[in-house]
Amino acid sequence: MSHPLSDLARALRRLPPSCGPVRLVGVDGHAGSGKSTFAGRLAAALGGAPVLHLDDIASHEELFDWTQRLLDQVIEPLRRGATARYAPYDWRARRFGPPRPLPPAPVTLIEGVGAGRRALRPFLARLLWMELPREEAWARGRSRDGEEQREFWDGWVRAERRHFADDPSRPYADLLVHQVTGGYQVLPGPVRRPGEDQHVTLRDGLSSMW
User: Fold this and answer.
1) pTM, to two decimals
2) Which fold has domain 6-202?
3) 160-172, pLDDT tens digit by residue?
């Protein structure tokens, strides 16, 4: 039996490039909604596709004001077909580390809160949104990170509310990803016309394509 995400991966590979030779796929959603786990599983189904975590681009001082850094360090080099080099942020040391290469690949995933922001959407081949209510997602995130991160989470929630109020991603999502028992369920997103996409279930395999 094929990997339950294999058909989705094949569909992404068939898309036209969106950023130079690269098909950039954004995975957005509220903090704690399962973006990293889903992106990792999808990357594996894509044969080891690179995943850029926006936690590496953001910082304590710039939770959401990282657009220009991402454009300069990642988007512009990939658009030229060159290897991008970005400096990942160390959240414990509170400083950016040495540059890390990101070569142009057929499909590259960008996951994190804000992956579908308006400045990035022109470079995305597809935008996926993790469909989990924000309060439930934030509760999961707080539980995951523990009491020692309580103060950070209080500040994060305020910042995330402001970000999505000004620059929402979900209305522009091509696909909505629901986590279900045993896998994921993917439905057409708000920007897909009714009937354009079929219901896709990534739990027992895919019976139809979108």
Assistant:
1) 0.90
2) Rossmann fold (3.40.50)
3) 999 999 999 999 9
